[in-house]
Write a structure and sequence with these properties.
- This protein is mainly beta.
- The chain is built from no helices and six strands.
- It has strands spanning about 1-15, 20-35, 40-50, 65, 70-75, 85.
- Strands 1-2-3-6-5-4 form a six-stranded antiparallel beta barrel.
- Mean pLDDT is about 85; it is low at about 90-95.
């Protein structure tokens, strides 16, 4: 996995299209690469980071985060401190397919 992007800002945390809160976020996006050629492996990625809020109630729930630039990412809150993690690809992880 190679770090391909780091971003931070204020975004909208949502569940089922309903706004839950505006949150500060910090994200790092990693992309899986083919050994040797360095070409990206479609669908192999990881998003790590954090949101600033009391996130205990959202642990394990499928959420989306709208970034300042308009992109929307599927995220999973994994700790009450707001740590987030998302891996893989598909309808439960992103909104691109």
């Amino acid at each position: 996995m190679k770090l391909v992007e780091q971003t931070a800002g204020v975004g909208e945390l949502m569940r089922d299209g309903v706004l839950l809160a505006q949150v500060r976020y910090r994200l790092s996006r990693f992309q899986g690469l083919m050994e040797g050629s360095g070409l990206p492996i479609p669908g192999v990625h990881r998003i790590e980071g954090s949101i600033e809020c009391n996130a205990a109630e959202w642990i394990g729930q499928p959420l989306t985060l709208r970034l300042e630039d308009g992109r929307v990412l599927g995220i999973n809150v994994v700790s009450k401190e707001g740590r987030i993690l998302s891996e893989g690809h598909g309808p439960m992880r992103c909104l691109c397919c």
